[in-house]
Amino acid sequence: MTLSIQNQPRPLPEIPYQTTRESLELSGGNTIELEVLKNLNETIDRVFEILERDGRPELLEALCPYFGVVWPSARALLEVLTRGQFLQTGLKTLEIGCGLAIPSLIAASRGIEIHATDFHPEVPRFLRRNCDINGIPGGRLHYHELDWQQDSAALRAFKEAQGPFERIIGSDILYESKHAELVPVLLDHLLHAEHGRALIADPARPYLQKFVDGMHARGFKSSSEILTAPDRPVAKEIFVIEFSRA
Fold first, then answer.
1. Is 41 part of any domain?
2. pTM of the model
3. Is the model more confident about 38 or about 25?
4. First-to-final CA distance of the chain
């Protein structure tokens, strides 16, 4: 097994995902191969049908398969990471809300040990498969199931077991209003007290400014750039913001 998974899988209804391969181009002419959902909207409909049939439609929000596609913010984050020195060997690194965990896969392929977290129970299956596809050596990528939106006890336990981290990355994690308040708390809690830095990519969601203000209120300083990432039907502008302890 090339992927270290720290949590036992929970009982789930069997969902027959239809997948396809997608090649993602990296700087320097390299590519990474990913197993992704063939069609997100069709998959959402299929998940809802299965949950409704099983009498558990209330699980749709928790099991909605947004994790299984390559979002523009992940592309922008990856561009910044592959052309800079943010990720370095020897720096304890974490990806939050990882989904397909593309930055984690790239980091691990380049010899960086990295931890990735998400709360969707299907993430480990896709992550294990994509580790195998790309020949990620064992012991470099560690996955932890962590719902930082709800479980403060789990967050404290995670920090005690794995943190603090010198680098934290995340893409498109501000998609609900409460995230603008929760993510600053998360980053402040998990980042190294002296030289911790975070890199967050966001497609200008309505809660982005509130999140940035929350980081500043906690003593972080920030710098940002705007990148254009491919999307359908048109390309999308993505804010990539770096935070560091002031």
1. yes
2. 0.92
3. 38
4. 41
